[in-house]
Amino acid sequence: MNRQMDEPLDLKARVEQLCVMLADIQQHYAPAVFANSLGAEDMVLTDLIAQRFPGISMFTLDTGRLPEETYDLMQRIRQHYGVTIHAYFPDATTVEQYVAQQGPNAFYESVALRKSCCYMRKVEPLKRALQGKKAWITGMRREQTSTRENLELSSFDEVHNLQKFNPLCEWSTEEVWHYLKQQSVPYNTLHDRFYPSIGCAPCTRAVTPGEDVRSGRWWWERADTRECGLHVRNTNTPHE
Ligand code: SF4
User: Fold this and answer.
1) Given pLDDT bands bounded at 50, 70 and 90, which one contains residue 129?
2) Which of 11, 17, 23, 217 has the highest CB neighbour count under 10 A?
3) CA 195 to CA 39: how far, in whole Å?
4) Is 58 contained in some domain?
5) pLDDT digit string (tens) for 180-195?
6) For the CA of 115, the nearest atom of ligand 1
7) 90 close to 125: Cβ distance less than 8 angstroms
8) Which residues approach ligand 1 with their CB closer than 6 A?
9) What is the pTM of this model?
10) 17 within some domain
């Protein structure tokens, strides 16, 4: 990955702004949760929340198909910060039935089977994770892909009925990586092997320089079907 490590001029200001926002969420939106995808940008949030905002809890979605490197990172976060990231798993009976009827890798066969796999392994556990919460926080950024260029800093999530915050929405890739290096934050080693966006192991591959950062996700599908349903606009239009 070609990471330019020039000092971003306004990184300090960005971090201060971010902390003001996290403090406000912690104070006014309790209980608030951070949906931690364990990607590079989410490690910026992990670093700050774990050390400075104990009132914000963290969770991740363990689909059961994550790469080994992602489990390694979960373990390192535990050791480094002494915090627990609550892992939500899919419903075991639903997965057993899906695998028995369709096979373990049915997601390659059709968009419908892929989406039903994403639904049972991600969307349904996300609903459970957000139940009873006043706000959720994500690490999404406008720069990540064209479908995120209008991403808002904060909006009401009508689907899950709570406030949604994307406090890194204006951060650049360079700023994310500069922060991670400057603060010696642990990160997924797959990023060093040309995986800018990391999801489930069978549905993620490395990209070549210059390709869209999300082009390694569900690469066998047309670009307009590549979403997992986690981030849905209020119009019910898939966002991711
Ligand atoms: Fe299933 Fe792939 Fe979606 Fe993971 S990314 S939930 S393995 S279809």
Assistant:
1) very high
2) 217
3) 10
4) yes
5) 999 999 999 999 999 9
6) 8
7) yes
8) 63, 65, 107, 114, 117-118, 121-122, 199-200, 202-203, 228
9) 0.90
10) yes
